[in-house]
Specification:
Blueprint lengths: L18 H27 L5 H27 L15 H12 L3 H6 L14 E2 L2 H14 L7 E5 L3 E7 L22 E7 L1 E5 L2 E2 L1 H5 L5 H23 L13 E4 L7 E6 L13 H9 L2 H4 L3 E4 L1 H7 L11 E2 L9 E2 L2 E5 L13 E4 L1 H4 E14 L7 E13 L5 E5 L4
Parallel strand pairs: 2-14, 7-8, 8-16, 9-12
Antiparallel strand pairs: 1-14, 3-4, 5-15, 6-15, 9-13, 10-11, 11-12, 13-16, 14-15
Helix pairs in contact: 1-2, 5-7
Length: 414
């Protein structure tokens, strides 16, 4: 790589390469980024920042983002089973019946197994439940693709709504001597949070040639087709969803300054500058938000932000001159920020006035994802001839379950 202002951004390997080679290339690019960003910061301190150097750092930063995405795709590809059926375990009776339905619309075996799945509140047009193996495969891949699902609590339910009680006041307690009389304790005040499961759908299309090809594993094909659509819709809802026909995202919750925090609201720390970090000691606000979280939550905490915000933070150093952002330690692992893992969620807002681009917290305790058991498929060979459509649905809910477990960073003054 040349060291001139005309340096071309590092080449990004395709997702078909080896994951270890891609990781080595990512680490090499990060070292180049550090060297050039150090030069940029030195020029800024000398009040003679070179535009060429600044543009070069931005190009390398974008290349880092692209290489990280390629690395994540390679790691995800490892989760996918081979389409080659040689040596595969024999399919279950349900799977065999479901494959006959998907390939040629023959649902006699499924009816015989009495596995027809009715849609909630409607009749026999609800389609059929996919086999347990396929549902498990979709769930496993969603956990890898959907950023908030990967760090939140996930609970499966069989009903339309999960209701979770919590104590508002807690029980009355006190100290007492061993032989002294005990006064009656007060009754705790209880309330409940409701997490309704909303319907999420995808409709992949297949050609007759694909369905007739006996070598193609249709379970694998169906899982691969719906996973990206489900993950994209989930990711947006878990962050910004308004709770109307979709889960309620954690950014939709009411917010309040951390000094005035109360249950039912997420606390935030402000940068003190509209739409930007403070002019000096920029990384200090990240320390403030980290320690706004109680120790019991902090030990399992995760940073959540989008790639643009991460690119801005990647350039910051602490008081000792060390970069606060560190690359993944191994393929498949997460980048670290101040010793805590960082999750990239593209649905987080960009840095702007009064926006909340950064969240920090124990999402395992703070956010709950509710999956209603069962993924349904309805085969439609008529609406888009000659293609066959597969209307695939699952029910998902979500919302904040512990308002003290997640803190936000507000880029504003109030």
């Amino acid at each position: 790589m040349e060291d001139s202002g005309l340096t071309v951004a590092p080449e990004v390997k395709s997702a078909g390469g080896d994951v270890h080679d891609a990781f080595h290339e990512f680490m090499t690019t990060f070292e180049v980024f550090r060297e050039d960003n150090d030069r940029r910061l030195a020029e800024i301190e000398a009040k003679s920042a070179d535009v060429v150097t600044t543009e070069k750092v931005e190009r390398i930063s974008r290349a880092l983002d692209e290489q990280k995405r390629a690395l994540d795709q390679l790691a995800l590809k490892r989760l996918r089973p081979s389409l080659d059926r040689a040596g595969a375990a024999l399919p279950s009776e349900h799977k065999q019946a479901f494959e006959a339905y998907v390939r040629n619309g023959d649902d006699r075996q499924l009816r015989g197994l009495d596995t027809k799945a009715m849609s909630y509140g409607s009749g026999q047009d609800g389609g059929y439940l996919v086999p347990g193996e396929t549902e498990a495969e979709i769930g496993k891949r969603l956990a890898a693709l959907s950023p908030i699902r990967s760090i939140a609590s996930v609970r499966q339910v069989s009903s339309a709504v999960l209701k979770k009680p919590f104590a508002v006041t807690g029980p009355a307690t006190g100290w007492v001597a061993e032989t002294a009389s005990r006064s009656q304790t007060g009754t705790p005040t209880l309330a409940e949070l409701a997490f309704p499961a909303m319907e999420l759908y995808a409709m992949p299309a297949a050609t007759p040639t694909l369905l007739e090809d006996a070598v193609v594993d249709l379970d694998e094909w169906l899982s691969g087709e719906v996973e990206a659509a489900f993950a994209q819709q989930e990711g947006a809802a878990f962050v910004n969803g308004d709770g109307v026909n979709k889960p309620e995202g954690f950014l939709h919750a009411d917010t309040v300054a951390e000094a005035s925090w109360a249950w039912g609201k997420l606390g935030y720390v402000k940068t003190g500058v509209a739409g930007d970090f403070p002019a000096s000691n920029k990384s200090d606000v990240l320390i403030d938000i980290a320690y706004a979280l109680k120790a019991g939550y902090r030990q399992n905490a995760t940073w959540v932000m989008n790639r643009k915000t991460q690119a801005a933070i990647r350039k910051l150093k602490d008081a000792d001159g060390n970069y606060i952002w560190q690359p993944p330690a191994a393929p498949g692992s997460r980048a670290m920020l101040m010793g805590f893992p960082l999750v990239e969620a593209e649905d987080m807002p960009d840095i702007a006035t009064d926006a909340f681009p950064i969240a920090f917290g124990d999402f395992r305790r703070g956010y709950l994802v509710v999956d209603r058991t069962g993924v349904r498929v309805l085969r439609d060979p008529y609406s888009a001839k000659p293609y066959v459509l597969f209307y695939t649905t699952k029910r998902v809910g979500g919302g904040v379950q512990d308002f003290d477990a997640i803190k936000l960073l507000k880029f504003g003054t109030a």
